[in-house]
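dude i think i finally got it to work??
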Amino acid sequence: MLKFLAGILGIVGIIYLLLCGWLWLAQRRLMYLPSPTMGATPSAFGLAYSDVWIPLSEGGGKLHGWWLPTDSGNDLTILYLHGNAGNVSSNLGKAIQLRSLGASVLAIDYRGFGLSSGPFPSEQRLYDDALAAWQFLQREKQVAPNHLVIYGHSLGGAIGIDLASRIPHLAGLVVEASFTSMGDMATLSHYNRWFPVSQLLNQRFDSLAKVSHLRVPTLYLHGLADASVPAVMSEALYRASGGPKALWLVPNADHNDLPNWAGDEFDRRLRQFLQDHVLVQN
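look at this
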């Protein structure tokens, strides 16, 4: 009987280790949900825009994005970094809202998203893609660092924090509904009930370790009803951040509908942030 039980336990152990290995290998497919299907373009909203193709040094691929220029006379440019799902067209509404602030907007798709070339996303590739977008803005649009604001939503917030840590004298950073680290998010996963998920992560996005080095003016936004990323994570990022900073928690807002709940206050708060911390430097 003891040998039988030992054999059963051995089989269970092997299955468990195999499942742990599957989580290690499959986590990128669970984490990133890109879509190649494009929806509406800015022209559907009567906005002038141009498709941009940003060359990548790795593999010779290209990122696709939309450039929405402003006619306001404002030199400010916003680089919009969307979250882990869909593509730039499914996040078009946010790009349009940002353009309404009087800034030009570059909205990009990371590798594997939308019309951008592959391969499938990874943490380092996402960081490199954001850096390539910034280099494009410097080279092709002559955008100076002190005229650039990075706006990142959810996963894009973690990418934006990383990029902001690499650019001296950046004008500003806005982080909406983002997380402290993927390890902290893993503890909220149902997988965490059965597996040591934090130890199995190879996509870490440790924003909390980076924000203390920021000196750029930073605004954190989060919905208090966010069921995907708890608002306490933005509070933790805010507390740990260096440099000028602000935090706005929006009652009733979930992960993807903060501007809807905020209404006109969304526009007012962003304009106030730009006026107080960004435009005064330019």
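The mean pLDDT is 91.
im so relieved honestly
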